[in-house]
User: Which sequence fits this backbone?
């Protein structure tokens, strides 16, 4: 989606924006019993609005509303054609409100308006439309039993799904859970991250406008340790779909064990390797992909190609090209349609990123470009594109997820060495490799321990393909038809014909 709006147009719209700030439970706005959350604009450090914060009591109300809606059959029992129509309507409303949603997302989270308008919002709309289309195309199975019986295998919704999501793609990460969960006929309680609640609240309003019945999609802004934990421990949540850090993912496994053994699906952190072999078919394209792979979305991307491995023969040439792209991606005002990078989500994350930069310097990595906070006169939280050259893989910046625009680059000599370095991580989410050798492309792809492998590209994707990781990046897949498995269970019905 493109727009002719200028920086001044967006600023004028921003000054008039009055975002909705209440929770939505059972189709009604709800103040929340916790101390309100500040929605801070990361581009300026100024508070945009105060947002309701749900406590355990509010969460319980939301889960009860979701359960009532589910048991009543108002959504799960709705004729499929009608359910599909309403989810398609939601997609249409998102498209209709794309500029407003893009503005909300950019102001709340700090990412460039060209990204929210060009990717986050249209991709969310497409995801609802795509899952809506699955609703009347799902068939059940008859098992190949002996003739004396008929055994059917039917797919059923689980009931109440809780979704707990992060702040880096607020609407889209929520959508990857909510769309397939609703398509299967479940009720949902969605908790956005405390840094970025506004688009989720607007989503809840649009869902009601689209005819999704009250109680079917509840929006509960709140903090992780209160609202998130209350969902994790709630005895009447059937399944909890989480995207966020590995540390929090581990907590959800515990919450499940401590409560009702609810299903847990985890999309967690990453430290994805991006390998450039010396037979790379197009060094310029690979250098641009490596830059976008780490600096896009301010580096706040779970699949960011944050570990770069370049074969020795092309290392110097590649790094020169990469540095030129890094220089062209300096952060700017997120409302400027030409900004390539925006602001880091909040002051805490800014401090975290800068601490990692310090640790890189302290532990002996060579800082090739960047490393500093910029635009501090705006009051916002900006970090310039940063590239470290790393002599050893034991550095903290090579091992740990930074979630900021900081790249750890290393050189390698052989394919074995590249694979060993790439796989030496607790994470296994994204990975990329560039080579002109077809056999090598297959060979290396097979041996990379990751949920996603890109060959001669990076970040490409579509709602049609599964997204998720292995190792401590989590388990279960968002997107594609496979995501429906997470929000349904299989029932076997054995009918004796004797
Ligand atoms: P986070 O784990 O701090 O928070 C994620 C969500 O969990 C938020 O809604 C938060 O309120 C909640 N939460 C936090 N502490 C909690 C607790 N004690 N109990 C219950 N809920 C709690 O993560 P973040 O900082 O918001 O997001 C960044 C992380 O998300 C990174 O690690 C990134 O890699 C990961 N991520 C993964 C994917 C993926 O698809 N694998 C996509 C985007 C982001």
Assistant:
């Amino acid at each position: 989606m493109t727009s002719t709006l200028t920086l001044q147009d967006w600023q004028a719209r921003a000054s008039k924006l009055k975002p909705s700030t209440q929770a939505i439970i059972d189709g009604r706005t709800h103040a929340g019993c916790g101390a309100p959350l500040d929605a801070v604009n990361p581009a300026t450090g100024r508070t945009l609005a105060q947002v309701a914060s749900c406590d355990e009591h509010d969460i319980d109300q939301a889960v009860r509303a979701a359960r009532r809606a589910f048991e009543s059959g108002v959504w799960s029992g709705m004729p499929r054609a009608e359910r599909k129509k309403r989810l398609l309507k939601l997609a249409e409303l998102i498209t209709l409100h794309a500029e407003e949603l893009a503005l909300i997302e950019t102001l709340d989270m700090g990412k460039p308006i060209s990204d929210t308008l060009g990717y986050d919002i249209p991709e969310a709309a497409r995801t609802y439309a795509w899952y809506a289309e699955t609703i009347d195309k799902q068939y059940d199975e008859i098992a190949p039993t002996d003739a004396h019986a008929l055994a059917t295998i039917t797919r059923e919704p689980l009931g109440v799904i809780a979704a707990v999501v992060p702040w880096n793609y607020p609407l889209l990460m929520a959508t990857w859970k909510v769309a397939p969960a609703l398509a299967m006929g479940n009720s949902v309680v969605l908790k956005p991250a405390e840094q970025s609640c506004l688009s989720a609240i607007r989503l809840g309003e649009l869902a009601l406008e689209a005819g999704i019945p009250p109680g079917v999609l509840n929006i509960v802004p709140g903090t992780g340790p209160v609202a998130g934990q209350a969902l994790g421990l709630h005895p009447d949540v059937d399944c909890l779909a989480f995207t966020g850090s590995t540390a929090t993912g581990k907590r959800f496994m515990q919450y499940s064990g401590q409560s009702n053994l609810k299903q847990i699906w985890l999309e967690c952190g990453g430290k994805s390797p991006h390998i450039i072999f010396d037979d790379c078919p197009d060094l310029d394209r690979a250098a641009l992909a490596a830059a976008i792979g780490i600096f896009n979305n301010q580096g706040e991307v779970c699949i960011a190609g944050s570990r770069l491995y370049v074969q020795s023969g092309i290392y110097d040439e590649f790094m020169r090209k990469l540095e030129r792209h890094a220089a062209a991606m300096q952060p700017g005002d997120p409302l400027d349609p030409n900004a390539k990078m925006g602001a880091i989500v909040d002051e805490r994350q800014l401090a975290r990123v800068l601490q990692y930069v310090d640790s890189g310097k302290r532990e002996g990595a060579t800082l090739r470009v960047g490393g500093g906070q910029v635009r501090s006169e705006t009051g916002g939280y900006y970090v310039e594109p940063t590239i470290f050259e790393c002599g050893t893989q034991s550095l903290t910046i090579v091992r740990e997820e930074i979630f900021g625009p900081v790249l750890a680059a290393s050189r390698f000599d052989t394919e074995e060495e590249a694979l060993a370095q790439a796989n030496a991580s607790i994470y296994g989410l994204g990975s990329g490799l560039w080579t002109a050798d077809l056999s090598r492309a297959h060979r290396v792809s097979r041996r990379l321990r990751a949920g996603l492998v890109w060959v001669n590209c990076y970040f490409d994707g579509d709602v049609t393909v599964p997204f998720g990781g292995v190792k401590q990046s989590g388990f279960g897949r968002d997107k594609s038809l496979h995501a429906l498995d997470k929000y349904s269970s299989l029932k076997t019905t054995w009918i004796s014909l004797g």
Summary: Residues 38 and 110 are 15 Å apart (CA to CA). Residues 113-134 form the longest helix (22 residues). The domain at 273-462 is CATH 3.40.309.10 (Aldehyde Dehydrogenase; Chain A, domain 2). The chain has a mean pLDDT of 98.
